[in-house]
Design brief:
By secondary structure, the protein is an alpha+beta fold. The protein has a single domain, classed as Alpha-D-Glucose-1,6-Bisphosphate, Chain A, domain 4, CATH 3.30.530. It contains 3 helices and 7 strands. The chain has a 7-stranded antiparallel β-sheet with strand order 1-7-6-5-4-3-2. A hairpin with a 2-residue loop joins strand 2 and strand 3. Helix 1 packs across helix 3 and helix 2 crosses helix 3. The longest helix has 37 residues. The radius of gyration is 16 Å and the shape is elongated.
């Protein structure tokens, strides 16, 4: 992955970590599905519509998100944390869109506040042409799409924890 680019985005959920963890671990794919605009679940994958807007450009792509693993809760200097490994690629014509490998870390910041931390690496498509497009606008679109995804997941967690 020599041409991969890193992205890191985080959001806050004003709910206790233990409740957020329970909702997230129960069925992460379903949560991602409910968090996105349009989605259909499949065995270990989901197809979602991710949107990103940078200036006058809006990119909409259906992506297949897969949860590759969920690590058991582990101790960290800030307290317990949960990590979910995921990947995504375009569900149609994946050779024309970036692929993503990422982790979603969830941990307590305070008794009633949880952080959702997305750290991923995406690979632009189309070799040298894709690298040039990524340098012009692709990186900003990827960053905007990931930011929206993380915000949507955080909002869904706020709603799901409230309704439990």
């Amino acid at each position: 992955m020599s041409n991969a680019h890193e992205l890191r985005v985080y959001a806050y959920v004003n709910r206790p970590y233990a409740l957020v963890r329970d909702v997230l671990q129960a069925d992460p794919l379903s949560l991602f599905q409910r968090a996105t605009v349009r989605a259909t679940a499949r065995a270990q994958a989901l197809v979602s519509t991710l949107r990103a807007t940078v200036g006058p450009i809006e990119l909409v792509a259906d992506v297949a998100v897969k949860v590759t693993s969920v690590e058991p809760e582990r101790p960290t200097p800030l307290g317990p944390a949960t990590r979910i490994h995921l990947t995504w690629e375009a569900s149609k014509r994946p050779e024309l869109f970036p692929t993503m490998e990422a982790t979603l870390d969830v941990y307590a910041l305070a008794p009633a506040e949880t952080q959702v931390d997305f750290s991923g690496r995406y690979t632009p498509p189309l070799g040298v042409v894709g690298a040039a497009l990524d340098a012009l606008v692709g990186h900003r679109l990827a960053e905007a799409g990931v930011h929206r995804f993380v915000e949507d997941v955080a909002e869904r967690l706020r709603l799901d924890v409230t309704t439990r």
